[in-house]
Specification:
Strand 2 and strand 3 form a beta hairpin. This protein has nine helices and six strands; from the N terminus they run αβααββααβααββαα. The N and C termini lie far apart (71 Å). It is of the alpha+beta class. The strands form two sheets. Strands 1-3-2 form a three-stranded antiparallel beta sheet.
Amino acid sequence: MEQNRVMAAIETILFAMGDSVEIETIAKALEIPEEDVRDAVHALEERCNEPQSGLMINWLEDSVQISSRPEYYEYLVKIAKAPKKQVLTDTLMETLSIIAFKQPVTRAEVENVRGVNSDFAISKLVSYDLVEEVGRKEAPGRPLLFGTTEQFLRSFGIRSLSELPDLGTDQIEEFREEAEKEVDGRLDI
């Protein structure tokens, strides 16, 4: 299949699906190798990077999605009802960070790190589609495991979890000391 036709087919698939689509799924649908799909998506991405384009390509792990450019969002708002802005409080950001760096992780493991009940925070992150249930831990009671979603990647502008910064032992120790001071402050010790 000719490259322009492949690009047009991928553009059509991504537009119609709305959500991200795995490269493997596109390759099967078009009956071409995955590498040809990646090449065509990269070419489509270059075309979308032109100043006259209002669209952009988002890579999310081994999936791809087409979306509107953030700088044109104001025009969409004028036509569609503006979605309610999600506010990530310090508590939600702390909980989300723990899940992002330690995933898959149980609610109890999050609470162990935070030192407080995290039911509300995890439920709110699930409702924001930043966190999802990813399975059950092979342990007594088979507790739920949580991990981040593709929406998490989109929201933070990263393509893969591998782009998250590495936490060195110094940073971990600094975070631990800050957490202990915060707990001591709450207890007035």
